[in-house]
Design brief:
With about 300 residues, the protein is an alpha/beta fold. It has nine helices and nine strands. It has one domain: Alpha-Beta Barrel (TIM Barrel), CATH 3.20.20. Strand 5, helix 5 and strand 6 form a beta-alpha-beta unit.
């Protein structure tokens, strides 16, 4: 977990690769059903810099936006113009979930659904992420689970009236001792396409197996849905390269994982920017391509 920026127009990149034959395109608009590789928290200029540094062309660009923000104020249209996939994290920062569930913001969600449909491109959409954590107004110990579920389902129903091709992502934080029970805020299989897991390797002894794998296993067993590692990263410390290698190896080995999104940002506490950590960048360049092609298995 890292505290999300409250800037509504932040960009995250994710690169999507193949499944079955490990390179075969099997989804909408060039999406592949597995081996998604990503990077988080770059603007459009930073995206170009990321491509140059890693040798990877992203296929998905994730945008953080606050409820109430018009889609036109984001980079969604520019992302589609570059033949990349928008992934939108829709965050109700200063809005109560009770009001959303009651339909008081339906005009906004209907407008958003219309705008998403007008892109003429499939979109991945996540609403109110990391709700099993403790740091957001919609999260553990701050909003009742029943209210969260009602709001999530309501947003899904309203937007789906206007755009039926959305991949709906329910994004949880890795489990930790003071978190809510992981599935206490699960909207239900009928409402979710993929599940997401956010988690970082940044403490001594951290590995994919002890940070991300337990939460992934629980979600897979309970939901049967594909899992996207929707936010992960390693800070600029001597262990970074080995931690990053662990993430790729782990994602390669766990059934049902459809990809990795890397958080490429300095968050005022830790520096996750790959371009500023040559050993970690070298591992990313190597292992991202191996993961994409399936040659790392």
């Amino acid at each position: 977990m890292t505290r999300r920026l409250v800037i509504p127009l932040m960009v995250i990149v994710a690169i999507v690769s193949g499944c079955a034959s490990r390179s075969q395109v099997a989804g909408q608009d060039g999406l592949r059903v597995s081996r998604n590789i990503g990077v988080a928290a770059v603007n459009l200029r930073g995206l170009q810099q990321f491509r140059a540094a890693t040798g990877i062309r992203p296929q998905i660009v994730e945008i953080y936006m606050a409820v109430g923000t018009p889609l036109e104020r984001t980079d969604a249209a520019a992302i589609v113009a570059q033949e990349e996939q928008p992934l939108i994290q829709l965050n109700p920062y200063r809005v109560s979930l009770q009001s959303i569930a009651a339909g008081h913001l339906d005009r906004y969600f209907m407008s958003l659904g219309t705008a998403l449909h007008s892109l003429r491109h499939s979109v991945i959409l996540s609403f109110a992420p990391e709700a099993n954590g403790t740091w957001y107004s919609w999260a553990c110990h701050r909003t009742p689970a029943a209210v969260y579920i009602a709001a999530w389902r309501h947003v899904r129903r309203v937007i789906a009236r206007f755009d039926k091709d959305i991949i709906w992502l329910w994004d949880a934080n890795q489990s930790f001792p003071t978190a809510c029970p992981l599935l206490s805020r699960w909207p239900g299989a009928a409402y979710v396409t993929w599940v997401g897991v956010d988690g970082y390797l940044r403490t001594p002894g951290a590995t994919f197996a002890n940070v991300l794998a337990p939460t992934i296993a629980e979600l897979r067993a309970a939901t049967g849905k594909p899992v996207l590692i929707a936010e992960t990263g390693v800070p600029d410390v001597p262990e970074a390269a080995s931690w990053l290698a662990s993430i790729f190896a782990g994602a390669e080995s766990v059934p049902g994982v459809v990809g990795i999104v890397y958080f490429n940002y300095f968050d005022n506490r830790r520096n996750y920017i790959l371009e500023q950590d040559p050993p970690a960048l070298a591992v990313f360049r190597r292992d991202a391509r191996l993961y994409q092609t399936g040659k790392g298995s």
